[in-house]
Amino acid sequence: MDTRRPMRADARRNYDHLLVQAGEAFQAHGVDASLEDIARAAGVGIGTLYRHFPNRDALLLALTEERFDRSRASAEALLDAADPVAALTSWLRRFIANSATYRGLPESVTSVLTNPDSSLYATCHAMQDAGGRLLARAQQAGAVRPDVSARDVFLMAAAIGWANSQVPDDPERIERLLSLLIDGLSRPYAGPGLPERAHIVS
Amino acid sequence: MDTRRPMRADARRNYDHLLVQAGEAFQAHGVDASLEDIARAAGVGIGTLYRHFPNRDALLLALTEERFDRSRASAEALLDAADPVAALTSWLRRFIANSATYRGLPESVTSVLTNPDSSLYATCHAMQDAGGRLLARAQQAGAVRPDVSARDVFLMAAAIGWANSQVPDDPERIERLLSLLIDGLSRPYAGPGLPERAHIVS
DNA sequence: TGGCCAATCGGAGGTAGCCTCCGTATATTA
DNA sequence: TAATATACGGAGGCTACCTCCGATTGGCCA
Questions:
Q1: What angle do CA A18, A22, A28 make, to 5 degrees?
Q2: pLDDT class for A29, splitting at 50, 70, 90?
Q3: At residue A193, does pLDDT exceed 90?
Q4: Which residues form the HTH tetR-type domain (chains A, B) (predicted)?
Q5: In degrees to the nearest 10, what's the CA dihedral of A27, A32, A38, A44?
Protein backbone atom coordinates (compact mmCIF):
# COMPACT_ATOMS: atom_id res chain seq x y z
CA MET A 1 0.00 0.00 0.00
CA ASP A 2 2.55 2.52 1.13
CA THR A 3 4.86 2.96 -1.82
CA ARG A 4 6.98 5.63 -0.09
CA ARG A 5 10.36 4.65 1.19
CA PRO A 6 10.80 4.59 4.92
CA MET A 7 12.31 7.76 6.35
CA ARG A 8 16.03 8.04 6.69
CA ALA A 9 17.12 7.30 10.25
CA ASP A 10 18.13 10.88 11.09
CA ALA A 11 14.88 12.23 9.66
CA ARG A 12 12.83 9.77 11.69
CA ARG A 13 14.73 10.70 14.85
CA ASN A 14 14.20 14.41 14.30
CA TYR A 15 10.54 13.92 13.48
CA ASP A 16 9.98 12.09 16.74
CA HIS A 17 11.90 14.62 18.81
CA LEU A 18 9.91 17.44 17.25
CA LEU A 19 6.61 15.80 18.10
CA VAL A 20 7.61 15.25 21.71
CA GLN A 21 8.82 18.82 22.15
CA ALA A 22 5.81 20.27 20.34
CA GLY A 23 3.51 18.35 22.65
CA GLU A 24 5.26 19.74 25.70
CA ALA A 25 5.36 23.28 24.31
CA PHE A 26 1.67 23.26 23.37
CA GLN A 27 0.87 21.88 26.80
CA ALA A 28 2.85 24.62 28.50
CA HIS A 29 2.10 27.61 26.27
CA GLY A 30 -0.96 26.70 24.24
CA VAL A 31 -1.10 26.12 20.50
CA ASP A 32 0.60 29.48 19.87
CA ALA A 33 3.88 28.30 21.36
CA SER A 34 6.95 29.49 19.45
CA LEU A 35 7.96 27.08 16.70
CA GLU A 36 11.55 28.23 16.93
CA ASP A 37 11.59 27.26 20.60
CA ILE A 38 10.22 23.86 19.69
CA ALA A 39 12.91 23.34 17.06
CA ARG A 40 15.58 24.44 19.51
CA ALA A 41 14.26 22.12 22.22
CA ALA A 42 14.27 19.25 19.75
CA GLY A 43 17.87 20.05 18.86
CA VAL A 44 17.17 20.74 15.18
CA GLY A 45 17.18 23.83 12.96
CA ILE A 46 14.00 25.69 12.18
CA GLY A 47 14.26 24.54 8.58
CA THR A 48 14.02 20.93 9.70
CA LEU A 49 10.85 21.66 11.64
CA TYR A 50 9.26 23.26 8.60
CA ARG A 51 10.27 20.44 6.32
CA HIS A 52 8.56 17.86 8.50
CA PHE A 53 5.57 20.06 9.36
CA PRO A 54 4.93 22.74 6.73
CA ASN A 55 2.77 24.76 9.12
CA ARG A 56 1.52 24.87 12.66
CA ASP A 57 -1.61 22.93 11.79
CA ALA A 58 0.40 20.02 10.46
CA LEU A 59 2.06 19.74 13.85
CA LEU A 60 -1.29 19.96 15.58
CA LEU A 61 -2.67 17.37 13.21
CA ALA A 62 0.09 14.89 14.00
CA LEU A 63 -0.47 15.41 17.72
CA THR A 64 -4.26 15.20 17.76
CA GLU A 65 -5.51 13.18 14.83
CA GLU A 66 -5.41 9.86 16.61
CA ARG A 67 -7.28 11.29 19.59
CA PHE A 68 -10.05 12.70 17.42
CA ASP A 69 -10.35 9.48 15.53
CA ARG A 70 -10.73 7.54 18.76
CA SER A 71 -13.45 9.99 19.70
CA ARG A 72 -15.29 9.10 16.51
CA ALA A 73 -14.93 5.40 17.26
CA SER A 74 -16.21 6.00 20.75
CA ALA A 75 -19.31 7.76 19.40
CA GLU A 76 -20.01 4.83 17.14
CA ALA A 77 -19.66 2.38 20.00
CA LEU A 78 -22.01 4.43 22.17
CA LEU A 79 -24.80 4.12 19.60
CA ASP A 80 -25.61 0.79 21.23
CA ALA A 81 -25.75 2.12 24.78
CA ALA A 82 -28.97 1.70 26.71
CA ASP A 83 -29.57 5.32 27.70
CA PRO A 84 -29.22 7.70 24.72
CA VAL A 85 -28.80 10.80 26.89
CA ALA A 86 -26.16 9.18 29.06
CA ALA A 87 -24.38 8.13 25.86
CA LEU A 88 -24.50 11.65 24.45
CA THR A 89 -23.32 13.12 27.74
CA SER A 90 -20.47 10.73 27.99
CA TRP A 91 -19.37 11.42 24.44
CA LEU A 92 -19.60 15.20 24.86
CA ARG A 93 -17.48 14.93 27.99
CA ARG A 94 -14.81 13.23 25.93
CA PHE A 95 -15.13 15.72 23.08
CA ILE A 96 -14.67 18.59 25.52
CA ALA A 97 -11.68 16.96 27.16
CA ASN A 98 -10.11 16.42 23.72
CA SER A 99 -10.60 19.95 22.57
CA ALA A 100 -9.24 21.24 25.88
CA THR A 101 -5.98 19.32 25.51
CA TYR A 102 -4.08 22.50 24.70
CA ARG A 103 -4.97 26.11 25.29
CA GLY A 104 -6.24 27.45 21.96
CA LEU A 105 -7.22 24.06 20.58
CA PRO A 106 -10.98 24.75 20.66
CA GLU A 107 -10.35 27.66 18.28
CA SER A 108 -8.48 25.35 15.95
CA VAL A 109 -11.18 22.71 16.06
CA THR A 110 -13.99 25.08 15.17
CA SER A 111 -11.89 26.68 12.46
CA VAL A 112 -10.95 23.30 11.00
CA LEU A 113 -14.62 22.38 10.76
CA THR A 114 -15.36 25.32 8.49
CA ASN A 115 -12.23 24.99 6.36
CA PRO A 116 -12.30 22.06 3.92
CA ASP A 117 -8.67 22.69 2.98
CA SER A 118 -7.47 21.84 6.45
CA SER A 119 -5.74 18.52 6.84
CA LEU A 120 -7.79 17.78 9.95
CA TYR A 121 -11.06 18.50 8.16
CA ALA A 122 -11.92 14.91 7.32
CA THR A 123 -11.05 13.54 10.74
CA CYS A 124 -12.97 16.23 12.59
CA HIS A 125 -15.99 15.90 10.37
CA ALA A 126 -16.11 12.14 10.79
CA MET A 127 -16.02 12.69 14.53
CA GLN A 128 -18.73 15.31 14.34
CA ASP A 129 -20.95 13.15 12.17
CA ALA A 130 -20.63 10.25 14.57
CA GLY A 131 -21.55 12.56 17.44
CA GLY A 132 -24.45 13.86 15.40
CA ARG A 133 -25.89 10.37 15.22
CA LEU A 134 -25.72 10.12 19.00
CA LEU A 135 -27.64 13.38 19.24
CA ALA A 136 -30.23 12.27 16.68
CA ARG A 137 -30.81 9.08 18.59
CA ALA A 138 -31.41 10.96 21.83
CA GLN A 139 -33.81 13.24 19.98
CA GLN A 140 -35.70 10.34 18.43
CA ALA A 141 -36.03 8.81 21.88
CA GLY A 142 -37.76 12.05 22.89
CA ALA A 143 -35.20 12.79 25.59
CA VAL A 144 -33.57 15.79 23.92
CA ARG A 145 -35.38 18.75 22.43
CA PRO A 146 -35.82 18.19 18.73
CA ASP A 147 -35.21 21.80 17.69
CA VAL A 148 -31.50 21.83 18.38
CA SER A 149 -28.89 21.17 15.69
CA ALA A 150 -25.76 19.10 15.97
CA ARG A 151 -23.76 22.11 14.91
CA ASP A 152 -25.05 24.16 17.84
CA VAL A 153 -24.38 21.36 20.29
CA PHE A 154 -20.78 20.95 19.16
CA LEU A 155 -20.26 24.67 19.20
CA MET A 156 -21.44 24.78 22.80
CA ALA A 157 -19.24 21.86 23.72
CA ALA A 158 -16.22 23.55 22.15
CA ALA A 159 -17.25 26.73 23.95
CA ILE A 160 -17.14 24.90 27.26
CA GLY A 161 -13.63 23.75 26.45
CA TRP A 162 -12.73 27.32 25.60
CA ALA A 163 -14.28 28.69 28.79
CA ASN A 164 -12.39 26.23 30.89
CA SER A 165 -9.07 27.30 29.43
CA GLN A 166 -9.77 30.99 30.03
CA VAL A 167 -9.72 30.91 33.80
CA PRO A 168 -7.56 29.25 36.46
CA ASP A 169 -7.86 25.50 36.77
CA ASP A 170 -10.88 24.12 38.52
CA PRO A 171 -11.18 20.38 38.05
CA GLU A 172 -14.95 20.38 38.55
CA ARG A 173 -15.77 23.21 36.20
CA ILE A 174 -16.08 21.22 32.99
CA GLU A 175 -18.49 18.85 34.69
CA ARG A 176 -20.64 21.70 36.01
CA LEU A 177 -20.81 23.45 32.65
CA LEU A 178 -21.49 20.23 30.82
CA SER A 179 -24.34 19.55 33.22
CA LEU A 180 -25.78 22.98 32.41
CA LEU A 181 -25.61 22.18 28.73
CA ILE A 182 -27.24 18.78 29.12
CA ASP A 183 -30.04 20.22 31.22
CA GLY A 184 -30.57 22.84 28.55
CA LEU A 185 -30.74 20.14 25.90
CA SER A 186 -33.09 17.91 27.83
CA ARG A 187 -36.66 18.17 26.77
CA PRO A 188 -38.07 20.59 29.33
CA TYR A 189 -41.06 19.86 31.50
CA ALA A 190 -43.97 20.67 29.23
CA GLY A 191 -46.08 22.27 31.95
CA PRO A 192 -47.19 25.90 31.93
CA GLY A 193 -44.68 28.71 32.14
CA LEU A 194 -41.18 27.33 32.18
CA PRO A 195 -40.44 26.48 28.58
CA GLU A 196 -41.42 29.93 27.42
CA ARG A 197 -39.19 31.82 29.80
CA ALA A 198 -36.16 31.76 27.60
CA HIS A 199 -37.97 33.48 24.79
CA ILE A 200 -39.30 36.49 26.60
CA VAL A 201 -37.90 39.57 24.96
CA SER A 202 -36.45 42.41 26.93
CA MET B 1 -12.48 67.88 40.02
CA ASP B 2 -10.39 67.38 36.95
CA THR B 3 -7.23 69.34 37.62
CA ARG B 4 -5.55 68.29 34.36
CA ARG B 5 -5.31 70.79 31.57
CA PRO B 6 -7.32 70.15 28.47
CA MET B 7 -5.40 68.33 25.74
CA ARG B 8 -3.60 70.36 23.15
CA ALA B 9 -5.71 70.70 20.02
CA ASP B 10 -3.51 68.50 17.83
CA ALA B 11 -3.35 65.83 20.53
CA ARG B 12 -7.11 65.79 20.88
CA ARG B 13 -7.52 65.47 17.12
CA ASN B 14 -5.08 62.60 16.91
CA TYR B 15 -6.65 60.87 19.89
CA ASP B 16 -10.04 61.00 18.24
CA HIS B 17 -8.77 59.79 14.89
CA LEU B 18 -7.00 56.89 16.56
CA LEU B 19 -10.14 55.80 18.37
CA VAL B 20 -12.19 55.88 15.18
CA GLN B 21 -9.61 53.89 13.22
CA ALA B 22 -9.06 51.42 16.05
CA GLY B 23 -12.79 50.77 16.22
CA GLU B 24 -12.89 50.04 12.50
CA ALA B 25 -9.79 47.88 12.60
CA PHE B 26 -11.00 45.83 15.57
CA GLN B 27 -14.33 45.44 13.82
CA ALA B 28 -12.68 44.22 10.66
CA HIS B 29 -9.79 42.15 12.03
CA GLY B 30 -10.62 41.46 15.67
CA VAL B 31 -8.79 42.75 18.72
CA ASP B 32 -5.47 41.53 17.30
CA ALA B 33 -5.53 44.05 14.47
CA SER B 34 -2.15 45.61 13.72
CA LEU B 35 -1.53 48.74 15.78
CA GLU B 36 0.82 50.06 13.12
CA ASP B 37 -1.99 49.83 10.57
CA ILE B 38 -4.27 51.72 12.95
CA ALA B 39 -1.69 54.48 13.40
CA ARG B 40 -1.19 54.68 9.65
CA ALA B 41 -4.93 54.83 9.00
CA ALA B 42 -5.25 57.60 11.57
CA GLY B 43 -2.46 59.51 9.84
CA VAL B 44 -0.15 59.54 12.85
CA GLY B 45 3.15 57.89 13.75
CA ILE B 46 3.25 54.74 15.82
CA GLY B 47 4.83 56.72 18.66
CA THR B 48 1.75 58.90 18.86
CA LEU B 49 -0.50 55.88 19.16
CA TYR B 50 1.58 54.52 22.02
CA ARG B 51 1.67 57.85 23.82
CA HIS B 52 -2.10 58.07 23.88
CA PHE B 53 -2.66 54.34 24.49
CA PRO B 54 0.31 52.70 26.20
CA ASN B 55 -0.89 49.24 25.22
CA ARG B 56 -3.57 47.43 23.29
CA ASP B 57 -5.78 47.10 26.35
CA ALA B 58 -5.84 50.86 26.84
CA LEU B 59 -7.27 51.20 23.35
CA LEU B 60 -9.80 48.48 24.04
CA LEU B 61 -10.67 50.16 27.32
CA ALA B 62 -11.38 53.47 25.65
CA LEU B 63 -13.57 51.76 23.07
CA THR B 64 -15.56 49.54 25.42
CA GLU B 65 -15.64 51.03 28.89
CA GLU B 66 -18.77 53.06 28.36
CA ARG B 67 -20.60 50.07 26.90
CA PHE B 68 -19.73 47.87 29.87
CA ASP B 69 -20.73 50.54 32.30
CA ARG B 70 -24.10 50.89 30.60
CA SER B 71 -24.46 47.14 30.95
CA ARG B 72 -23.95 47.49 34.70
CA ALA B 73 -26.56 50.24 34.85
CA SER B 74 -28.94 48.09 32.86
CA ALA B 75 -28.50 45.21 35.32
CA GLU B 76 -29.32 47.51 38.20
CA ALA B 77 -32.41 48.79 36.47
CA LEU B 78 -33.60 45.25 35.76
CA LEU B 79 -33.57 44.41 39.47
CA ASP B 80 -37.04 45.93 39.60
CA ALA B 81 -38.44 43.94 36.68
CA ALA B 82 -41.45 41.74 37.32
CA ASP B 83 -40.07 38.44 36.03
CA PRO B 84 -36.61 37.67 37.42
CA VAL B 85 -35.78 35.09 34.76
CA ALA B 86 -36.82 37.38 31.94
CA ALA B 87 -34.69 40.09 33.50
CA LEU B 88 -31.66 37.79 33.74
CA THR B 89 -32.17 36.59 30.18
CA SER B 90 -32.43 40.06 28.84
CA TRP B 91 -29.30 41.15 30.65
CA LEU B 92 -27.31 38.12 29.52
CA ARG B 93 -28.35 38.84 25.96
CA ARG B 94 -26.86 42.29 26.30
CA PHE B 95 -23.74 40.99 27.98
CA ILE B 96 -23.19 38.53 25.15
CA ALA B 97 -23.75 41.18 22.50
CA ASN B 98 -21.24 43.43 24.24
CA SER B 99 -18.56 40.83 24.52
CA ALA B 100 -19.10 39.85 20.90
CA THR B 101 -18.50 43.40 19.65
CA TYR B 102 -15.08 42.46 18.29
CA ARG B 103 -13.59 39.09 17.48
CA GLY B 104 -11.36 38.20 20.41
CA LEU B 105 -13.12 40.43 22.90
CA PRO B 106 -14.58 37.56 24.97
CA GLU B 107 -11.00 36.42 25.63
CA SER B 108 -10.12 39.90 26.82
CA VAL B 109 -13.15 40.13 29.05
CA THR B 110 -12.50 36.86 30.83
CA SER B 111 -8.83 37.70 31.19
CA VAL B 112 -9.60 41.17 32.55
CA LEU B 113 -11.81 39.63 35.20
CA THR B 114 -8.94 37.58 36.61
CA ASN B 115 -6.34 40.33 36.39
CA PRO B 116 -6.73 43.11 38.98
CA ASP B 117 -4.00 45.16 37.30
CA SER B 118 -6.07 45.61 34.19
CA SER B 119 -7.54 49.03 33.67
CA LEU B 120 -10.89 47.48 32.77
CA TYR B 121 -10.94 45.38 35.95
CA ALA B 122 -13.10 47.71 38.02
CA THR B 123 -15.62 48.36 35.27
CA CYS B 124 -15.99 44.70 34.38
CA HIS B 125 -16.30 43.64 37.97
CA ALA B 126 -18.96 46.22 38.68
CA MET B 127 -20.85 44.90 35.70
CA GLN B 128 -20.41 41.31 36.83
CA ASP B 129 -21.52 42.10 40.36
CA ALA B 130 -24.66 43.79 39.11
CA GLY B 131 -25.40 40.77 36.93
CA GLY B 132 -24.74 38.53 39.91
CA ARG B 133 -27.52 40.26 41.84
CA LEU B 134 -29.89 39.56 38.95
CA LEU B 135 -28.95 35.90 39.11
CA ALA B 136 -29.33 35.76 42.90
CA ARG B 137 -32.77 37.26 42.64
CA ALA B 138 -33.86 34.66 40.11
CA GLN B 139 -32.47 31.96 42.38
CA GLN B 140 -34.26 33.32 45.44
CA ALA B 141 -37.47 33.35 43.45
CA GLY B 142 -36.91 29.62 42.93
CA ALA B 143 -36.86 29.98 39.16
CA VAL B 144 -33.17 29.21 38.63
CA ARG B 145 -31.29 26.28 40.09
CA PRO B 146 -29.58 27.37 43.29
CA ASP B 147 -26.38 25.37 42.77
CA VAL B 148 -25.00 27.48 39.96
CA SER B 149 -22.49 30.28 40.56
CA ALA B 150 -22.44 33.70 38.95
CA ARG B 151 -18.94 32.99 37.75
CA ASP B 152 -20.07 29.93 35.82
CA VAL B 153 -23.00 31.78 34.29
CA PHE B 154 -20.79 34.63 33.04
CA LEU B 155 -18.25 32.20 31.75
CA MET B 156 -20.95 30.46 29.75
CA ALA B 157 -22.27 33.75 28.45
CA ALA B 158 -18.79 34.79 27.35
CA ALA B 159 -18.39 31.33 25.82
CA ILE B 160 -21.51 31.90 23.74
CA GLY B 161 -20.04 35.15 22.50
CA TRP B 162 -16.85 33.29 21.68
CA ALA B 163 -18.69 30.49 19.88
CA ASN B 164 -20.60 32.95 17.78
CA SER B 165 -17.42 34.61 16.57
CA GLN B 166 -15.83 31.30 15.61
CA VAL B 167 -18.17 30.42 12.78
CA PRO B 168 -19.77 32.30 9.89
CA ASP B 169 -22.45 34.81 10.80
CA ASP B 170 -25.86 33.47 11.71
CA PRO B 171 -28.06 36.18 13.19
CA GLU B 172 -30.19 33.70 15.11
CA ARG B 173 -27.39 31.71 16.65
CA ILE B 174 -26.81 33.80 19.75
CA GLU B 175 -30.50 33.60 20.57
CA ARG B 176 -30.57 29.82 20.16
CA LEU B 177 -27.51 29.28 22.31
CA LEU B 178 -28.74 31.70 24.94
CA SER B 179 -32.00 29.81 25.06
CA LEU B 180 -30.07 26.58 25.66
CA LEU B 181 -28.24 28.23 28.52
CA ILE B 182 -31.39 29.63 30.09
CA ASP B 183 -33.14 26.28 29.87
CA GLY B 184 -30.14 24.69 31.53
CA LEU B 185 -30.28 27.28 34.29
CA SER B 186 -33.99 26.98 34.84
CA ARG B 187 -34.96 24.82 37.77
CA PRO B 188 -35.75 21.52 36.08
CA TYR B 189 -39.03 19.72 36.47
CA ALA B 190 -38.62 17.90 39.74
CA GLY B 191 -40.34 14.73 38.59
CA PRO B 192 -38.64 11.34 38.32
CA GLY B 193 -35.84 10.75 35.89
CA LEU B 194 -34.96 13.91 34.04
CA PRO B 195 -32.95 15.95 36.52
CA GLU B 196 -30.53 13.10 37.17
CA ARG B 197 -29.65 12.51 33.56
CA ALA B 198 -26.91 15.06 33.41
CA HIS B 199 -25.00 13.40 36.18
CA ILE B 200 -24.78 9.89 34.86
CA VAL B 201 -21.14 8.97 34.55
CA SER B 202 -19.80 7.23 31.53
C1' DT C 1 35.39 -1.03 2.49
C1' DG C 2 34.91 3.13 -0.06
C1' DG C 3 32.52 6.28 -2.74
C1' DC C 4 28.43 8.35 -4.64
C1' DC C 5 24.17 10.87 -4.44
C1' DA C 6 19.60 11.53 -3.01
C1' DA C 7 17.77 12.83 1.19
C1' DT C 8 18.20 15.73 4.88
C1' DC C 9 19.98 19.44 7.61
C1' DG C 10 20.60 24.19 9.37
C1' DG C 11 20.42 28.80 9.69
C1' DA C 12 20.84 33.24 7.21
C1' DG C 13 17.79 36.53 5.79
C1' DG C 14 13.41 38.80 4.34
C1' DT C 15 8.92 40.12 6.39
C1' DA C 16 5.91 41.79 9.90
C1' DG C 17 4.45 43.38 14.27
C1' DC C 18 5.58 45.06 19.02
C1' DC C 19 7.23 48.74 21.74
C1' DT C 20 10.78 52.44 23.31
C1' DC C 21 13.42 56.32 22.93
C1' DC C 22 14.70 60.82 21.79
C1' DG C 23 15.57 64.57 18.48
C1' DT C 24 12.28 67.63 16.15
C1' DA C 25 8.13 70.34 15.59
C1' DT C 26 4.34 73.11 17.19
C1' DA C 27 0.29 74.87 20.07
C1' DT C 28 -0.25 77.85 23.70
C1' DT C 29 0.67 81.51 26.78
C1' DA C 30 2.54 85.72 28.14
C1' DT D 1 6.71 87.29 18.85
C1' DA D 2 9.37 84.58 21.78
C1' DA D 3 9.67 80.98 25.26
C1' DT D 4 8.33 76.63 26.76
C1' DA D 5 5.63 72.80 27.79
C1' DT D 6 3.50 69.52 25.03
C1' DA D 7 3.19 66.47 21.41
C1' DC D 8 4.94 64.26 17.16
C1' DG D 9 7.22 60.63 14.31
C1' DG D 10 9.86 57.06 13.00
C1' DA D 11 14.35 54.75 13.51
C1' DG D 12 15.80 50.82 15.71
C1' DG D 13 15.99 46.75 18.74
C1' DC D 14 13.39 42.74 19.56
C1' DT D 15 10.80 38.40 18.56
C1' DA D 16 8.47 35.31 15.62
C1' DC D 17 7.17 33.54 11.09
C1' DC D 18 8.60 31.18 7.01
C1' DT D 19 11.65 30.29 2.69
C1' DC D 20 15.58 29.14 0.33
C1' DC D 21 19.76 26.99 -0.77
C1' DG D 22 24.60 25.63 0.20
C1' DA D 23 26.51 22.13 3.37
C1' DT D 24 26.16 17.64 5.31
C1' DT D 25 25.22 12.77 5.80
C1' DG D 26 22.82 8.16 5.75
C1' DG D 27 22.25 4.24 2.92
C1' DC D 28 23.18 1.62 -1.05
C1' DC D 29 26.04 -0.59 -4.36
C1' DA D 30 30.40 -1.99 -6.41
A1: 150
A2: very high
A3: no
A4: 12-71
A5: 150
Expressed in percent and rounded to 5, the helix, strand and coil fractions of chain B are 70, 0, 30
Taking the CA of residue B13 and the C1' sugar atom of nucleotide C27, their distance in angstroms comes to 13
Q: Does B97 touch chain A (CB under 8 A)?
A: no
What radius of gyration, in Å, describes the C-alpha atoms of chain A? Answer: 20
Q: Are both A73 and A17 inside the same structural domain?
A: no
* pTM attached to this predicted model: 0.90
Examine the domain organization and report whether B48 and B68 are in the same domain.
Answer: no
Q: Residues of chain B whose pLDDT is less than 70?
A: 1-4, 188-202
Whether nucleic acid strand C comes within 7 Å of the CB of A50, the answer is yes
B200 contacts A89? CB cut-off 8 A: yes
Q: What is the mean pLDDT of chain B?
A: 91
Give tens-digit pLDDT for B13-31: 999 999 999 999 999 999 9
For the CA of A44 and the C1' of C9, the distance in angstroms is: 8
- Nearest CA to A169 out of A103, A79, A83 is that of A103
Q: What is the CATH number of the domain that holds A138?
A: 1.10.357.10
Q: What is the pLDDT of residue B25?
A: 98
Identify which of A33, A154, A155 has the alpha carbon closest to the alpha carbon of residue A91: A154
